[in-house]
Each structure stands twice: as C-alpha cells, then as structure tokens.
Amino acid sequence: MFIFTFMSAMNIPKSSFPRIIIIGGGFAGISLAKELSKKEVQVLLLDKNNYHTFQPLLYQVSTGGLEPDSIAYPIRKVLKDYPNFFFRLANVEEVNPSKNELITNIGAINYDYLVMATGSETNFFGNKEIEKNGMVMKSIPESLNLRSLILENFEQALLTDDLHLRDALMNFVIVGGGPTGVELAGALAEIKKGILPKDYPDLDTRRVQINLVQSGDRILKEMSEKASKKAEDFLEELGVQVWKNTRVKSYDGKLVTTQTDLSFEAATLVWAAGVKGAAIKGLDAEELLMRGNRIKVNEFNQVIGHENIFAVGDVAGMELPDYPSGHPMMAQPAMQQGKNLGKNLTYLLGNKPLKPFIYNDKGSMATIGRNKAVVDLDAYKFQGIFAWFVWMFVHLFFLIGFRNRMIVFINWVYNYVRFDREARLIIRPYKRDYTMFKD
Ligand SMILES: Cc1cc2nc3c(=O)[nH]c(=O)nc-3n(C[C@H](O)[C@H](O)[C@H](O)COP(=O)(O)OP(=O)(O)OC[C@H]3O[C@@H](n4cnc5c(N)ncnc54)[C@H](O)[C@@H]3O)c2cc1C
C-alpha cells in the first residue's frame, strides 16, 4: 500500500516504498522506467528536458527532412499510467553519495537507490577552438541551430559576388566518419542535388562542397569492412569528398586545418567526432571513471564502490573481455541495460540474486541516402535499397509514440515521392558572425 506522509523537497510524497531516482529520460532511463512500472517502488524521473529525444534522427531535423516535434516525446506521457511515478523537470548538478542526496537546480532530494542514465555529451578532446566555432548535433536545439546555419549560409552566399567567399559559405566540413557524420554528409549531398538548384536558381549550387573527414583508415569503423567500403562508394556517388587518415587540428571559424597538408576554408564545421559519458559532479572522481568519461560499473550496472547507485546506457562503463571500453554507445545497449536493471532492482529488493547484463547485439546500420543504406546483422550483411527499407522500418519501430511514427512515415513517403524536404525553415535564426569572411 502506498502511504502519504509529509511532502519532501520537489513536492514528492514520502512513501513506504523505496525511492528510486532515475536521472535521464533517454533510451536507458525510459526502458528502466517501463520495467519498474508495476513494481512496489516509488520512482522519480528527473530530466533537464521534458521530452525524450530520438537522437538517431537528429540529422534529419538538421537537414529539413523532419520537424523536431516528430522525434521528441513528452516524458510525462510515457509515465502517465504508472502508479507511484513522478517526473520533475530538473538539471541535476551534483550527487552526494554519503548522504544519498542529489542537488538539482530546483532543490535537493534524497534517494534510496539512484540510477544515472544521463547519456553522453560531445567530446571535443580538449580542443576549445573547435568547441567555440564548430557546430554539434547532440540535441534538438543544436540540430535546429545547424538547420538554420546551413540555410543562412546559402542566403549569405546569394548576397556576394566574391566567388572565394561564396565557396567558403557553401563548403561544409563534417568531422567524424561514424554513423552521424556519414548520415549527415549523405543528407547534405541529397539537398545539394534535389533542393538547392530549385530554391537558389541564381546560385551556382554545383560548387557546394561536402567534405567528410575521418581520422582513421575507414568510415563506419564499428561496422564490417564491406559496409564501410559500400558506404564510402555511396557517398562518393553522391558527390561527398571523403578524407581518410586525416585528423582535424583547428578551426577558427573560417579555416579548417588538419594534421596533413589539407585545409579548407569553410563557414561550417560540424563536429561529429566523439562523445563522452555525461558523468555528474560527485560521481566524477578519476578512479570512478573509465576511458570516455564513463562511470565504471560491475556486470549488474552497479557503480563500483556504491551499493545503491547504478549507471546505465552511454554513461555506464562496463568493462568486459568482449567490450574492454564498455558497450557501444548506442540505443540498443542502453535499452537492454535499462531493462535488465529494472529486473535487478526488483531482485535486490526481494533479496534475490542479481542477473548479470549480457548484451544481445542485434547488429548495426547506417543510411547514406535514398535507397542507400548498409546493414550488418550477425549472420547477414547487406547494402542498398533493401538495407534502406530495413533501416527505415527499424527506426520507425523504435520511435516513441504512434503520432511520431505516423508523422515520420508520412514525411518519408512525401520526401521520397516528391524529392523534397519541406522543413527547410529558419525559424530561430542562428547568429553566426560572418564578418571574418569579409576581410
Ligand atoms: C546524432 C546522433 C545519432 C545517433 N544515431 C544512432 C543510431 O543510429 N543508432 C544507435 O543505436 N544509436 C545512435 N546514437 C546514439 C544513441 O542515441 C545513444 O547511444 C543513446 O541515446 C544512449 O541512451 P542513454 O539513455 O544512455 O542517453 P540519452 O538518450 O542521451 O539520454 C540521456 C538523458 O539524460 C538527460 N540528462 C543528461 N544530463 C542530465 C542532468 N545533469 N540532469 C538532468 N537530466 C540530464 C538528457 O536530457 C537526456 O534526456 C546517436 C546519437 C546521436 C547524438
């Protein structure tokens, strides 16, 4: 029975059930919440956004293929039918494990069990200049910034007869040949081909350049060699320049330099070259973190040295022989860890033995453009149009919310049939300083 006594900070009633606080309503946090929905626990989910973001489709928001609303879902709606669940819009600033307390921008609160499901943030590897001048695509507001900037660059390019400047405005440098960089490069190339000549007939859009820069010797390095090779062929077919074994060194907002002799003058650099775990103060001591700023956990997702604190998803670093740097920072491991932890928390409360997390790798995929995708499954690897349909189906399946699925599906059919991307809107202008290009 659920007994109200007095209210705690954040107006969460005291309960006879243990209080589990989940920080983060991403893939891991939501999957954990679902697993706990019918259990005898009080759950408080905290997130700095009131929505869940489907990050795999952020690049489509940046390139006008989808409206941002169709890849976001209200967290309160996910939890609405779950008894003893609470949501608070809060930015968690610090964890105080010795007092079982969290400090947030809306006050402090105590927990019995804490789950860190805070995901990851962009990793600039200490390069402050790129952090200041580059664009990123880790959240919906950032994707909208990028969408605005891309379109603003073309509007600016129309205003000048200086060919050199125009070329820089139409030069897009994407750093990082992982799925995000590859998908964004492919989408930009399709815009160049299908949209720009119609929207900007008075601009020579054949001069638009899309440069994908990868430090290693192949793109999509987490996938099979066959998938990497095919993805590179697809990109080249679309007119993307792929630069391998090239490490970007600096970007002052105008000039991209690399550790080889290559450099680009470009108004846009998109940094898609790395993420790191979003650890929070109090759980960020050096001895608690593994490579990539991920919080070290054991095979039950329990933070090392803290019996009642757990971490799941991108922020969790579970070092195993097969995964020496932790599981891939992807949606599948995050969801599976959330689910397994939900079960384990119930076992823990019932004094039953915990079940170690075993990752069921269902494969990976990336799309490069219309009819072009690569899919690696355990037994079968394929590329091309069938892979593209599989990619679409899987993404629709994992999107949260029936409305979102319908809207995304309709948009994709419309875009496919009409060769269009109607969300190419500068709703919230991005304030880019173009003066440095006008010297
Ligand atoms: C552009 C892009 C494309 C991607 N494409 C793919 C793909 O195709 N396939 C794939 O499998 N994976 C992809 N990923 C990776 C995938 O999205 C992540 O691995 C996954 O989201 C991790 O889930 P998570 O629950 O750990 O974190 P997230 O989903 O990032 O959720 C973390 C949540 O925590 C909240 N939060 C963080 N810090 C705080 C705080 N201090 N206080 C309060 N709330 C906080 C955030 O607001 C967020 O809601 C992509 C990622 C990006 C950025």
From TrEMBL:
- Can you tell which superkingdom this protein's organism belongs to? Bacteria
- External alternative NADH-ubiquinone oxidoreductase-like C-terminal domain location: 362-416
Q: What is this protein called?
A: NADH:ubiquinone reductase (non-electrogenic)
Q: What is its EC number?
A: 1.6.5.9
Alphabetically sorted, this entry's keywords are: FAD, Flavoprotein, Membrane, NAD, Oxidoreductase, Transit peptide, Transmembrane, Transmembrane helix
Q: Please name the GO terms that the record assigns under molecular function.
A: NADH dehydrogenase (quinone) (non-electrogenic) activity
Q: In this record, what's one Pfam family?
A: Pyr_redox_2
Q: Which reaction does it catalyse?
A: a quinone + NADH + H(+) = a quinol + NAD(+)
Chain ranges of the FAD/NAD(P)-binding domain: 19-338
The record's annotation in InterPro entries points to: FAD/NAD-bd_sf, FAD/NAD-binding_dom, NDH-2, NDH2-like_C
> Transmembrane residues, as ranges?
385-402
- Extract the PANTHER family matched here: EXTERNAL NADH-UBIQUINONE OXIDOREDUCTASE 1, MITOCHONDRIAL-RELATED, NADH DEHYDROGENASE
Spell out the family assignment given in the record's similarity comment.
Belongs to the NADH dehydrogenase family.
